[in-house]
Write a structure and sequence with these properties.
It is a single chain. This protein is 39% helix and 19% strand. It is α+β, with helices and mostly antiparallel strands. It has a 3-stranded antiparallel β-sheet with strand order 1-2-3, with helices on one face. Helix 1 crosses helix 2.
């Protein structure tokens, strides 16, 4: 995990929940942690990480993840034992 991934991880666990994290940074972090991103129909993705799955829509026209998406990925990371 490089410095950018670490910065994204810290932002994901920040309180109050941020809505300024680029969605692509979240995808990159998932892959850095050994996960896999699968393209689905339209702007949908499915992320597989250590037996856990997360489905989401890529935001558009903006590039930042929505607050609820940040909270969902935070919960997924907590379930697999990742800490900030």
């Amino acid at each position: 995990m490089n410095a950018k991934h670490r910065k994204t991880l810290i932002a994901l666990f920040a309180r109050p929940t941020l809505a300024s994290i680029p969605f692509s940074d979240i995808e990159s972090l998932i892959e850095a942690l050994g996960g896999r991103i699968e393209e689905r129909e339209g702007s949908r993705i499915k992320a597989d990480l250590k037996g856990e799955q997360w489905r989401a829509h890529r935001p558009h026209p903006g590039k930042e993840a929505k607050r609820y998406q940040v909270e969902e990925i935070r919960e997924l990371l907590e379930r697999i034992g990742v800490k900030s």
